[in-house]
Amino acid sequence: MTAANQIYDILIIGAGAAGLFLAANLHGKSVAILEKNPSAGKKIIASGGGKCNVTNRYISAQNYLGDEEFVTKTLLNLDFSEVLEFFSELKFKEIKQNQFFCASSAKDVLGVLLRASQQSGAKIFYNCDVKSVSKISDPTKSDANAHNGLSNSQNEIFEILTHNGQKFSCKHLVIASGGLSYKALGASDIGYEIAMSFGMQVARTAPALVGFTVQKDEFWFKNLSGVSLNAEISLSAKNIAERKFSGDVLFTHKGISGPAVLNASLFWQKGTMSINFLPNFSFKNLNSKKQLSTILPLPKRFTLEFLKSINLADNSFNEYSQAEKTEILKLQEYKFAPAGTFGFERAEVTKGGVLTNELNQNFESKKQRNLYFIGEVLDVTGMLGGYNIHFAFASAKVVSDCLELRLERWLNYN
C-alpha cells in the first residue's frame, strides 16, 4: 500500500495498546497507523502471561510514578468498567489484586482492538520504521488561504519519513510508540527522538517492573534459583514517603524478582531497601526444640541458605546466642542494596520519557500544535496490575475526544 499524496487527518505512530485504542475511538476521519513490526500488538500478546491484564477495579494516581495531578485528571476520563465494556465480547476473570485477565488469551484482546480500529476506518501500515518527522507547508493550501482566517498551524502538516523511504503526511500526529522495554518485541526510542526534535524535554529512561541483580553480600540469593516466598519490601528515599510492596519474591540465577520486587523497582532510586521475609510472624515465645529451618514458615532451602550466609548452623532458636539471634532477626528487616536491574531486555515497562509538563491536559505538545504523545512513551509508569495498559487506554481516550472536537472545528474553517 502507498500513502503517496494523501494527507491523513490523523497519523498514529505505534500499533500497540494506546495507538489501537485511539484509532478505535476515532470515527469519520482518515486515520493511518504506522507500525515498525510486521504485525500489531506484540507487547499486548506477551502481557499478563499471555492473558493480558487490561485494567484494575481500583485505579488511582497512587499506582503510578509520575505527576500526580496530571495522572489523576487523565484517569478521570476512563473508568475500569468502560474498558471492560469496550471488550464486552470477551470474558475476563477478576483475580489476584482486583486485576482483570482475559479468560481466553491476549490474542483475543488484540483481535478486538484491531477489528475496532479497522471498523473505524484506520489503515495500518506494517514494517514502517519511522526515521524522522518534520513540519512542512500544506501543499493543498494556497497563499491566499493563509491570509483568510487560517492559523499557521492549519497551513502546515507533518511529514513522516520511514527507513524504507516511504513518506506519509498528516494534519495531526500522535506518538504512541511505547518505551524501550522488550527490544525483541520491537521497542524503539523514536518517540523520544521526535519529542526532542521539536524542543521537548525527555526524562532519563530506565528499566522498570524488573528484577534486581545482586552484589557480593547477596550472592547467596543465586543459590536459591527457583525458590519463591511471600515478603514485604520497604523503600524510603530523600523527600519521598516510605513505600511498601507485599507479594511473592522469586529468586533467580541472576538475583531476585517476583511481583513485590518488580513493583519496588519502579520506585527504587539506587541505594538500600529493606525486605521482611517473615511479614506475619513473631519470634516471641519461640521455644520449640526443633531446628529453625523446620519452625520458620519459609522454604527450608531458603532458611538453610540464609543461615549459611551468616555462618550459623541449623539449630533450635534457643540454642543461639543473643548476638546470633540478632542476626537471625534480620530476616524481618534484611537490608539489601541491589547492584542494578536485569535491564531493558527483561523489564516489563520503561520509566522516564517525555515529560508531562511539556503537554497540556489533552496530551498535546505545548511547543508544537497538533502533536500528541500517549501511553508508555510518557514519563508516567504504573505498577503491576493492569495500570499501564489502563493508562495507555485513558490517554488515548483523552486524545480521541480532543481530536473529534478539533477536527469538527477544522472542517468549519474550510
Q: Could you describe the 3D structure shown?
A:
It is a single chain. By secondary structure, the chain is of the alpha+beta class. The chain folds into two domains: 7-206 and 349-413, FAD/NAD(P)-binding domain, CATH 3.50.50; 212-341, no CATH class. The chain is 27% helix and 26% strand. The protein is built from twelve helices and 21 strands. Helix 1 links the parallel strand 1 and strand 2 (31-34). Helix 1 runs parallel beside helix 5 (106-119) and helix 1 (17-24) crosses helix 12. The two termini are 29 Å apart. Mean pLDDT is 93; it is low at 144-150.
- CATH topology of the largest domain: the name is FAD/NAD(P)-binding domain
- What number of domains? 2
Q: Strand pairing plus helix content: what structural class?
A: alpha+beta
Strands, total number: 21
So, CATH architecture of the largest domain?
A: 3-Layer(bba) Sandwich
| Total number of helices | 12
Q: CATH superfamily of the largest domain, called what? A: FAD/NAD(P)-binding domain
